[in-house]
Request: fold
Amino acid sequence: MSVSTSPEQRPPNSQQAESFPLLGQSLADLTLWVQQQGQPAYRGKQLYQWIYQQGARSLSQISVFPKQWRAELADFPIGRSTLHYRSAAPDGTVKFLLRLADQQIIETVGIPTFKTLSQKVGSSPFTDPGSAPTAPLDRLTVCVSSQVGCPMACDFCATGKGGFKRNLAVHEIVDQVLTVQEDFGQRVSNIVFMGMGEPLLNLENTVAAVRSINQDVGIGQRLITISTVGIPGRIRRLAEHQLQATLAVSLHASNQALREQLIPSARQYPLSALLDECREYVQITGRRVTFEYILLAGLNDCSEHALELAGHLRGFQSHVNLIPYNPIQEVDYQRPDEQRIQTFVRILKQQQIAVSVRRSRGLAADAACGQLRASQSA
Ligand code: SAH
Reply:
């Protein structure tokens, strides 16, 4: 597994102040912290291993620490959430509702892909239409949240309907990965920032969480995807962090008028400006961009939309990921039938655009894209 950012490149954690949770902090930060507590430096390594590998939830569990120190620090926060609700779909996808220290609830989804089927259908964690949960596990993808709720209010998305509460802290993002890993008893292989929230509105914590997930949890940056609806100037700012992660941009429309209809924030961010910023991202990072495109029957899934989309992306180092709409309660968009989806795919391919279809996972548990609303039922 490639760990693509060296520890030297990781900025010191500005959260390091005594009262911050320890999860999300690097080995160097934790070593400094134990020394501040009057302990020898080697206890930093022990702490690091217990937090990231042993899943310690309280310092009192760390049996290699001196008894008295453990007792003194028993209430010091490591920063783990508690499980509020868990629901598994027949395809093996598991949705977790996690309770944070301030009682807010967020959603995280664990998406297993199984060897036999995934080998047939390709390399995306989302292309497996109906895997058998008993087959050997090929990948375990975690769909993480970056905010409690979401302020973007995209019309097709359940999270937006519930409003916005706050950004997640670094430890609250890293915790989601450890929680899924522990629940499945398997190492997580891929991360997608496609849960609740808009990661680029919480950019610094998202970047710090990516670095911690990479260096401390051990997941290669190239296996991490950050999905954004696009916030002016923020894609450029993300590029300047020079992560090796993949950027996915939620385009969802082939022209400005249609995009504004679906995504209120698009009014402040013309499609042409968004695409220009994506081009800059490719220039700065040398990495291609994925464009996500929800297919809504009769609305944005016609041949002319496919042609219009192809027109924007010709010659652009990119990839289109089509997402057939997952139903939510409040709106009555429809998912197109398979034939329409395949026609859209065929047109893009004819136009030399790289394209894949994301198959819904976890629909039965309301755990598919856009269905997360931090409540136990839809
Ligand atoms: N705010 C980020 C990430 C969150 S959602 C973003 O907008 O990209 C992750 C993906 O799920 C986005 O592409 C989002 O548009 C998509 N999505 C939202 N609602 C959906 C729905 N009902 N059906 C299918 N995909 C949906």
